[in-house]
From TrEMBL, chain B:
It is an enzyme of class 2 (transferase). Its EC number is 2.8.1.13. It comes from Lactobacillus taiwanensis. The keyword rRNA processing does not apply. Belongs to the MnmA/TRMU family. Residues 287-362 form the tRNA-specific 2-thiouridylase MnmA-like C-terminal domain. Keywords: ATP-binding, Cytoplasm, Disulfide bond, Nucleotide-binding, RNA-binding, Transferase, tRNA processing, tRNA-binding. Residues 209-273 form the tRNA-specific 2-thiouridylase MnmA-like central domain. This is tRNA-specific 2-thiouridylase MnmA. The keyword Disulfide bond applies. Gene3D superfamilies: Adenine nucleotide alpha hydrolases-like domains, HUPs, Translation factors. It catalyses: S-sulfanyl-L-cysteinyl-[protein] + uridine(34) in tRNA + AH2 + ATP = 2-thiouridine(34) in tRNA + L-cysteinyl-[protein] + A + AMP + diphosphate + H(+).
Length: 384, 375
């Protein structure tokens, strides 16, 4: 029973890269200084932070000064949304987003709606993509922000950021991209895509938890979420997590060295192993979202017909395979996926019978084969 | 020692001390134990506080202390459809339902059992005080547990043989104080946790207020058995046969005795009340009950049996003669002595010595052949 568990929930978080661990550990041991201090200890820490900042800016073709360290994706999203809404409310109170965003986007939107903002939630089709014409229609002069994710965390659909950026560029709105799932999996160029604000998280790219950055285009007017000291050029107070940032920098360096296309091909192969295994034993399933086209292959969302999500997750976990389904809420139970509901309707049986498998850089083909075999056995047993 | 490690027991853990100790004992016996928290009711209040969240936190702590994996499963929909709707329907009919009996039958030993089977379980367990015994033919019999004071066979009375075959009652030979001691000795987080009281979905809240949120209350007259109007009632569903408090009636010239609910007239929407605990109208000599369920299966022929019965939880047994009618799966039960406050909607449960035979739902009560006006 005590065999090694296999981790296939990389959209939730990823294991830390050993190089990142080594860097963080060494920083903690050697450079404990406060990056804001004027003495040698402070200067050393500052250097570490700025080196990482440069590495991170390069990943999205930004300038160093456009990178603000935050506590992660949620804070970055909150800052971009509340900060824009507050700073620009005299221009307009309309904000456009989609129905399939992460809760750290949707919940700020709900709050803003209560405060009198008009929130427009764009529909998505069955592949998890918006219709550009819908966006075009909504981009009226009072629209101050468009917030759209780069890659959906549940089905992997890639949004057409370049086309969206073109549209938003010619409007009054800022363009915010929640890139938490895209970061490290697809190429992003904030200049080419006309992105004004972009959120990332370190722990999704084999870095440490509770750390991320917000890219804020130079010259943009966005209010601070937190008030305090003058760190991050007065945009985000709090003493920088120097060791974590150093680790994040190393993770970014790895991303810059990596060929995303090769990575996607590897994940595509993983998908094929699983689907072939299901097909071979004639398991009744469908893929939620799509396998081809504008999709990141690190996510595979499967509708296992006749197999309850709860049962599937619990069985797989008891057998040593970590995947997910829906998002965990209080009392540990699952709330129905708002993403699948937006794609297939609230009454779709998919909502109660789907699981999400998500791959990471460190997964091996053998792990995927072992998982596929277990999945097939489970489906055969449960769908009887 | 027997090797139980290949036998998987899925334990329904509520976050209370009883199910915590059940899980602990099974783990100590070497079973492959999996803990599962059931969320059957959403009681999130305006401040966003939900007792289920706190209970689940306790389950996590205990499971970690014992060293077992834990999960949570949501049966809110099943519970709403199969227990709560029944609960409301019964109240609408002027009856007093027993949701705990239904919860065991439909949720804990159906939805949960199915889920456990999906997890390849051999058995399920919870924190019930009950016992089983297997006879030479492999038939499982339900037995009273050691702790007569906590005996929960009454609530388990609608289980079938198939359901009973899949359950282990680890607390069968323990008393509640012993269970507490075991929990304390093991340092379980729930060792000193207060027992939950009342119907699970109502908890400590005001029962009338709760019910009024779901059923429109229709006030009407409170009358004496001979038709004299003595007051107003707030809605028949709020009153239970034999109940004293909440009538708001004072003494009369004839008597200073308190008033009791002795009957209901659903058609006229009248509550029948009388002075004195021992009102004659509260005493039944026999009853009809339907939906009979015997743990060892339903006989295909009529049966007459001298045995004992409880028609209320925690009540001492009374001597009865049971007449089982196979044709419509009902029983007619004659009491050895007249019995007070037999309530339609409640369960009647039969015992033969230490064995619990099964139960049924009370429909009507009679006083010497004459039907009492209880609904």
């Amino acid at each position: 029973m005590t065999r090694k568990n296999i981790y296939l929930d990389n959209a939730a978080t990823t294991p830390m890269d050993p190089k990142v661990i080594e860097t963080i550990s060494s920083e903690m041991t050697n450079d404990f200084g406060n990056a804001s201090s004027q003495h040698a200890f402070g200067r050393k820490a500052r250097q570490v932070v700025e080196t990482a900042r440069h590495e991170l800016a390069e990943t999205i073709n930004a300038q160093d000064k456009e990178i603000i360290f935050t506590s992660g994706g949620s804070e970055s999203n909150n800052t971009a949304i509340f900060g824009t809404a507050r700073a620009r409310k005299n221009i307009g109170k309309k904000i456009i987003t989609t129905k399939i965003e992460h809760p750290s986007v949707l919940n700020p939107m709900k709050r803003l709606a209560k405060e009198g903002y008009e929130i427009v939630y764009l529909d998505v089709d069955k592949t998890g993509h918006i219709n550009l014409d819908d966006l075009k229609k909504e981009l009226t002069p009072d629209a101050i922000l468009v917030s759209i994710m780069a890659v959906n965390n549940e089905v992997g659909s890639i949004m057409t950021l370049k086309e969206i950026g073109e549209l938003v560029k010619d409007s009054n709105a800022y363009f915010h991209v929640d890139d938490v799932q895209g970061f490290g999996n697809i190429e992003i160029d904030v200049k080419e895509m006309n992105i004004d604000l972009l959120s990332t998280s370190a722990h999704k790219v084999n870095g440490p938890k509770f750390l991320g950055f917000l890219y804020e285009k130079d010259g943009l007017k966005v209010s601070n979420l937190l008030l305090g000291g003058e760190q991050e050029v007065k945009r985000r107070p709090g003493t920088e997590n120097v060791p974590g940032i150093a680790g994040f920098g190393v993770a970014a360096h790895e991303l810059n060295e990596m060929d995303k296309k090769q990575l996607q091909e590897k994940y595509q192969k993983f998908q094929k192993i699983i689907l072939d295994a299901l097909d071979q034993k004639q398991i009744d399933y469908e893929v939620n979202g799509s396998l081809e086209g504008k999709v990141s292959h690190h996510v595979l969302n499967l509708w296992l017909k006749g197999v309850n999500t709860y049962s599937a997750l619990t069985n797989l976990d008891l057998n040593g395979y970590a995947v997910s389904g829906g998002s965990a809420c209080t009392a540990g139970s699952l709330t129905p996926s708002h993403v699948l509901e937006a794609m297939y309707g609230e009454d779709s049986p998919r909502i109660a019978e789907s699981i999400r498998v998500s791959f990471g850089r460190f997964n091996t083909e053998n792990e995927i084969k072992s998982f596929a075999e277990n999945l097939v056995n489970m489906c055969q047993r449960l769908s009887k | 020692m027997v090797d139980n490690s290949k036998i998987r027991v899925v334990v329904g853990m509520s976050g209370g001390v009883d199910s915590s100790v059940s899980a602990l004992l099974l783990k100590q016996q070497g079973f492959d134990v999996v803990g599962v928290f059931m969320k059957n009711w959403d009681d999130t209040d305006d401040a966003g506080v939900c007792t289920a969240t706190e209970d689940y936190e306790d389950v996590k702590k205990v499971a970690d202390e014992i060293g077992i994996p834990y999960y949570s499963i949501n049966f809110e929909k099943d519970y709403w459809e199969r227990v709560f709707q029944y609960f409301l329907d019964e109240y609408k009919k002027g009856r007093t339902p027993n949701p705990d009996v239904m919860c065991n039958k439909e949720i804990k030993f159906k939805s949960f059992l199915d889920f456990a089977m999906d997890l390849d379980a051999d058995y399920i367990a919870m924190g019930h005080y009950a016992a089983t015994k297997v006879d030479e033919n492999g038939v499982v019999h339900m037995m009273r547990p050691k702790d007569g004071n906590k005996d929960q066979t009454y609530f388990l009375s609608q289980l079938s043989q198939d359901q009973l075959k899949k359950v282990i009652f680890p607390l069968a030979n323990l008393t509640k104080p012993q269970v507490r001691e075991i929990a304390i000795a093991a340092g379980l987080a729930t060792a000193k946790k207060k027992d939950s009281t009342g119907i699970c979905f109502i908890g400590e809240r005001n029962f009338r207020k709760f019910l009024s949120e779901f059923l429109p209350a229709q006030s009407g007259k409170m009358v004496t058995p001979d038709g004299k109007v003595v007051g107003e009632h707030a809605g028949l569903m709020y009153y239970t046969i034999g109940q004293r408090s909440g009538l708001g009636l004072g003494s009369t010239k004839e008597s200073t005795d308190p008033w009791f609910v002795v009957g209901k007239d659903l058609e006229k929407n009248e509550l029948i009340v009388e002075q004195g605990y021992d009102s004659k109208l509260l005493y039944a000599t026999s009853l009809d009950a339907s939906g009979v369920s015997f743990f060892t299966g339903q006989p295909d022929h009529d049966v007459d049996l001298k045995c004992t019965a409880k028609f209320r939880y925690r009540q001492p047994d009374v001597g009865v003669t049971m007449h089982y009618h196979a044709k419509d799966n009902t029983v007619h039960v004659e009491f050895d002595e007249p019995a007070r406050a037999v309530t339609p909607g409640q369960a009647i449960v039969f015992y033969n010595g230490e064995e619990c035979l099964g139960g049924a739902t009370i429909d009507r009560a009679y006083q010497n052949e004459k039907q009492l006006q209880l609904v």
